Amino acid sequence: MIIIAGLGNPGAKYEKNRHNIGFMAADEIGRRWRFGPSRAKFQSVVSEGEVETANGAVRVLLMKPQTFMNESGRAVGEAARFYKVTPQDIIVFHDEIDLAPGRFRMKTGGGAAGQNGIRSIISQVGADFRRARMGVGHPGEKHLVMPHVLGDFHKAESPWLQALLNACADALPFALAGDDERYQGEVLRLAPAPKFSPRQAARGEL
């Protein structure tokens, strides 16, 4: 069993926020691989599915914690204990302000780098889980970070956003087979990040 957790905040108010890109990735994965119906479990909305990889079929629990971002670890930890999975069997999709919009990086272990959802998960399962970091860009000033991540994606960002979500779903078998480097490369091949002027990105002129 592999647990895939997309991070975000529950409710219509937050649905299109940059902070909710993890929820968006989870939704796209569920659609692409035709996961089963959603239900409430582990303080989350969860669905289950099976994905064919080079190493055979892999069972996946897809979860969107409903605890709000800062308490995501409570939900992920509960699921991890129930299924007795190791941190290496947990993949967390989340927004990353230290990556330019549309960039994508896989990482295992390390600190939270200011991402409170990641900090919460570290507190519950340790640091050695796998992070699918989805770039949303930095607004340029520290005091602007919160309104930036809790702001909605601009309409002009839709092309790269949808391409990234599709790529994360389409290339998923590589991650489920344990080849994070190949997964990262394939996502970037399928969804090359757009070229932004940092000044334009900071002003929202995308």
Tell me the fraction of residues in β-strands, as a range: 15-25%
Query: Which radius of gyration do the C-alpha atoms yield?
Result: 16 Å
- The class by helix and strand makeup works out as alpha/beta
The CATH architecture designation is 3-Layer(aba) Sandwich
Coarse shape: globular
The number of domains is 1
Name the CATH superfamily assignment.
Peptidyl-tRNA hydrolase
Q: Which strands sit side by side, in order, in the main sheet?
A: 2-3-4-1-5-7-6
Mean pLDDT: 93
Low-confidence stretches: 198-206
Figure out the total of helices.
8
Alpha carbon gap, first and last residue: 39 Å
The largest β sheet comes out as: 7 strands, mixed
**How many strand elements?**
7
Order of helices and strands: EHEEEHEEHEHHHHH
Question: Percent of residues in helical segments?
Answer: 25-40%
Remind me, CATH topology?
Rossmann fold
Which CATH top level class fits? Alpha Beta
Describe this protein's structure.
- The protein is α/β, with parallel strands linked by helices and 206 residues long.
- It has one domain: Rossmann fold, CATH 3.40.50.
- Helix content is 36%, strand content 22%.
- It is built from eight helices and seven strands.
- Strand 2 and strand 3 form a beta hairpin.
- The longest helix is centred in the C-terminal third of the chain and has 13 residues.
- It is globular and about 40 Å long.
